[in-house]
Amino acid sequence: xxxxxxxEIFIPGRPKPRTVRYVGMIRAAAKPIGSHSRSGVEQExxxxxxxxxxxxxxxxxxxxxxxxxxxRAVLGEGPIGAPLALVGEQxxxxxxxxxxxxxxxxxxxxxxxxxxxGVERQETYVTNAVKHFKYEQRGKRRIHQKPTVSEVKRYRWxxxxxxxFVHPHVVVALGATAALxxxxxxxxxxxxxxxxxxGPFRGFITVHPSSLLRQQDDxxxxxxxxxxxRDLKKSxxxxx
Length: 240
What we know:
By secondary structure, this protein is of the alpha/beta class. It has one domain (69-239): Uracil-DNA glycosylase-like domain (Uracil-DNA Glycosylase, subunit E, 3-Layer(aba) Sandwich), CATH 3.40.470.10. The protein is built from 9 helices and 7 strands; from the N terminus they run ααβααβββαβααββαα. It has a 5-stranded mixed β-sheet, with helices on both faces. The protein has a two-stranded antiparallel sheet with strand order 3-4. The radius of gyration is 18 Å and the shape is globular. The model is unreliable at 1-46 (pLDDT under 50).
């Protein structure tokens, strides 16, 4: 597994280190892309950090995807200061095509669970740890591919900056990839499920709704769904 914490990250507006491991984060920082060094590694562009969520989102629309595939950056949606911010793994096929988060099968299940938990989707901020859809083309189908640790890391600065601007009361990690992005370390959901701390943000770790869709039988699916709804209720109480 990749070493998530020891690899270097480029953050716009920060001093330049002498070496850079990831061109992807540099490309994400701004346009135009900075000049090449003799080693062939691009240097950090001269650009200040964004001053608003709107400016950050404008940058995200410009960047080259840092995963294989993806047609557009799918931005987070919801109100500033939302009680809950829900962070998923990455956009799916429908999210990539339509440009909105959580509108596919997992999103519809999430909507049903939020309603059961008494949480208004319109009052909740929803986003993803990875901003582009990573997939493998198989015939006419685009098959979801799980992002690697390094790929999650390349988007981490963007996610944390996004949450700074949104400043939700509680951040909910939906699944292991979101928890990895928020904690900076690999997470086993079965061991860490429940309240958490994500840097300056109060948090809660639970499953991704897509995991419920993969359950093999109706009884297991129902039990998993009920547990997920309970987690959303607990998260809402933390945010109250």
